[in-house]
Task: structure prediction
Amino acid sequence: MQVKITAIKQTIYPDLIDIYEQPQLHPCEISVGQTWYVSDYDRPHGMCESAWQTLLPFVRELLNGGGNFFGNWMRDPHSAMVSCNDGFRPVTFLVQAVEP
Result:
């Protein structure tokens, strides 16, 4: 079993960035459409630690054959739609169990 992670959407809040964010050399570098395949619990190359920590419980459950998250809110019970915790430019990910 593998888990496919796809960056589906990113929302950017320039007003919050202007007021609150410390300037950064490398803010989120994930691009919409970017995809990773994982078969273990190691953070994939190019994914920030914060996003990975948000996704990891879903990845772990899917790798172990689980699903039906939060009362089966997804049409595909072996998937989840999850956003990272970046309050300035959150990325929404589709996390899916797939056959290798």
Remarks:
- The beta strands are 2-10, 35-38, 79-83, 91-98.
- The radius of gyration is 14 Å.
- The first strand starts at residue 2 and ends at 10.
- Residues 49-63 form the longest helix (15 residues).
